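Lecture 7, part B: from sequences to assemblies.

Below are the input chains for today's worked example.
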Amino acid sequence: MMNSEALAALIRPDSVHKSVYTDPAIFALEMERIYGRAWIYVGHESQVPNSGDFHTTRIGSQDVVMVRGQEGQVKVLYNRCPHKGAKLVAEGDGCVGKFFRCSYHAWTFKLDGTHLSAPLRPGFEGTNYNPASPEFSMRPVARVDQYRGFVFASQSPEGISLREFLGGVASSIDNLCDRSPVGEVEVAGGVFRVQQPSNWKVFYENLHDTMHARVTHESSFVAAREEAEAIGEMPFELLIQDANGEPYAFWEKLELRAYHRGHGYMEGIFDPNAATRDPVSRAHFACLTEAYGEDRARDILGMNRHNTIVYGSGSPHTVFQQFRVIRPLAVDRTLVEIQLFRCKGAPPEVYDRALTYANLINSPSSNVMPDDVEVYRRCQEGNNTFGGDWVSLHRYLGTDRTLPDGAVSTNGTSELPMRNQFAAWRDYMLDDSPLHPDTSTTTTATECPHHAA
Ligand code: FES
Ligand SMILES: [Fe+2]
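Predicted structure of the full complex, as structure tokens:
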């Protein structure tokens, strides 16, 4: 395994070694040292409204299942039967009923994962089979917590709290929820799934990469402008594609916030009068004014934030109510699942607008996202050549202002977000303290229930 010195040498203040995107051994270590420790978003509690409802996902390399228990609490369990290791539930969302029942030999488990029964009990007599032992139950992920309905889990039994982990980006989740007059959102509809032939970190870097917009997305913003000219107006559908064509001077004025642990957001991209600009916003504003008063409603809808980054989990979007969940699958393969949220109690057109945005900007069939996926693929393939070893992060290095909880850019085209993500990456990856102390329940070979001596 790569020692700490070798790992540290991959990250310079102004560049990173390309092997962080291409080396399978580094990817495997990321699964342990980042995904084995960090709080990772597993899903929203609205995805499991009733007892027995489940939603499957991954924490790094681990298949897990989020399930609503008998008493209403949400659990996150490894998706593994303790008999021969079969996954207890297939990928997706569903309901197991009152208990899990393995599809292989019918061992059953309560909704909290504890062992319930196994058929033909006499067959275990005289063996170490012990239903009360954790060895014969589904193993829970070490820590689970939620923030305003957003459920996160950490595979590490120790570490900072979820609230501390989220730091400055918790306010993006707050704003997403506050856009509902009752302060709650729910996942609505299915998800868009995009599998990208590139390393997971490239996606996080691109989320605040303002220099690529008018280059990579030229075909879509030019087409939007031509269409607007032809029809004599710029409807919402074209406006959101047109935005990528803003001149460099526009992107330079934005503010990039970088928080500890790789998080951050971009501010200043939308019209400051967004709260009352168009009919959908006006209806939303009227609804929130009734619930919270005019000043608060203006503050909520005026929060001008784009592409929040929760490093390791994905990107919640406050203005267009979505969470792009980012799942590393392999060193050169990443799954992005786009969840859409309905603000409970808000006018229905607010959800319709979020759906339009996702369809046109983020979905697999959008005019915009495929541009990004293509450049990610090119980065992955280019970095596999012998054409050079380092990836540049030089832009506006040394000019960003340091804050107690992170930093802020002095120019919106700064590569501060990427440098901040790699600072967090380095912290995680150089931490070689032991992982998963909860595995102490592992039996020795002589205790193994099926191969007892
Ligand atoms: S593998 Fe689950 S009951 Fe056998
Ligand atoms: Fe893009």
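Note for the exam: Residues 206, 212, 216-217, 372 surround fe (ii) ion (ligand 2) (CB under 6 Å). Keep this in mind when comparing with the next example.
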